[in-house]
Amino acid sequence: MAHRPHDHHGHPRPHGQGHGHQVTDPDWSQLATMLETQAELSAPVYEQIMAWLAHKVPAPGLIVDVGSGPGVVSCLFAEAFPGTRVLAVDGSEPLLARARARAARQGLADRLDTLAGELPGVLDEVPYPADLLWAGRSLHHLADQRAALAAFAARLAPGGTLALLEGGLSSRFLPRDIGIGRPGLQARLDAVQEEWFTRMRTELPGSVAETEDWPALLTAAGLKHTHTRSFLLDLPAPASDQARAHAAGRLGRLRDVVADSIDADDRATLDRLLDPSDPASVHRRPDVFVLSAQTVYTAVRPT
Question: Vertex 10, ends 139 and 224: CA angle to 5°?
Answer without folding.
Answer: 40
